[in-house]
Structure formats: structure tokens, C-alpha cells
Write a structure and sequence with these properties.
single chain; alpha/beta; five-stranded mixed beta sheet; 5 helices; 5 strands; 37% helix; globular
Length: 152
């Protein structure tokens, strides 16, 4: 899965009550855009419950995904949140972190997940990575800002 010019479904200052609500809203964007199957929202939530994806970087981010069988077209669903919501921390059983940005992976091949996740973790560890994302005032500008991060 190459990461340039991938379809991206975006939401700016997404209102979400909690992590599940955020995931369902982001997944719905991917389904509406034709990038994911109608089963994607439930699969994304189920996987997040089993394998939390919150990363305690300088600006906390969650990077959830679901099995490729629920994805039609490789890409991302990206949202900046209106208010942080609590996600489980990746690799832990009980730790929680308040997340400001969610980047859902839309992978069509199981082996691509590790490569894409590694690249995204590298990006979110950079100073100021979220600045252009937070400045975006429309989904289109958020998509462009995210694409620019992938290209950098």
C-alpha cells in the first residue's frame, strides 16, 4: 500500500461523546465515501476494544483499523476532535489517554498494516505534526494537510 494519493475521508472538529462514538462517526465517513463496507464501523469498534490504539505522543492520537475484509479501498479516515476523548493506550490493558486526533487505517491487505502503522507512528512523533491538521477548517483542507504529512 503506497501512502501517496490515497482516498481520505475527513472530519474537522468532530463532536464525539467517547471513543466508540468517535470511531463510529469516523467509520461512517469511510462507508459513505465508498472506501469501506457497511460492516466497517462495528469491526473498528470491536478491534479497538480488543487492541487499544491510543498513542501517548506529544499530541495524543489513536490509529485504529479493522480487518481488510471490511475495507473496499485503501486509505485513511482522519478526524480532529472538538474535544479530546479517552482511548485505551496501545499495548496496555488498562491505561487510558485523551486523544485529540484519530487516524483510522483503511487497509486492503493484511501485510500492509504494519508498514503503514510504522510510518504513521513516525509521523506523529515529530514535533508539530498536528499543527496543519488542527488549522484545517474544512474536510478538504484536512485531507490536503494529511497528504502533505505523508509526503514529507
Amino acid at each position: 500500500m503506497t501512502m501517496q494519493a490515497l482516498p481520505t475521508a475527513c472530519a474537522v472538529r468532530l463532536e464525539a461523546a467517547d471513543a466508540e462514538d468517535a470511531l463510529r462517526r469516523i467509520a461512517a465517513l469511510a462507508v459513505e465515501a465508498g472506501h469501506a463496507e457497511p460492516t466497517f464501523p462495528d469491526a473498528l469498534v470491536r478491534r479497538e476494544l480488543a487492541y487499544p490504539t491510543g498513542l501517548p505522543t506529544a499530541v495524543a492520537v489513536a490509529i485504529p483499523h479493522a480487518d481488510p475484509t471490511h475495507v473496499r479501498e485503501a486509505g485513511f479516515a482522519v478526524a480532529t476532535l472538538a474535544r479530546p476523548v479517552s482511548f485505551g493506550v496501545m499495548g496496555t490493558a488498562d491505561d487510558r489517554i485523551d486523544v485529540d486526533v484519530v487516524v483510522a487505517l483503511l487497509v486492503t491487505e493484511a501485510h500492509a498494516q504494519v508498514e503503514v502503522l510504522t510510518t504513521l507512528v513516525d509521523i506523529v512523533q515529530r514535533d508539530g505534526w498536528e499543527t496543519t491538521l488542527r488549522a484545517a477548517e474544512t474536510p478538504e483542507r484536512l485531507a490536503a494537510a494529511f497528504d502533505a504529512l505523508l509526503d514529507a
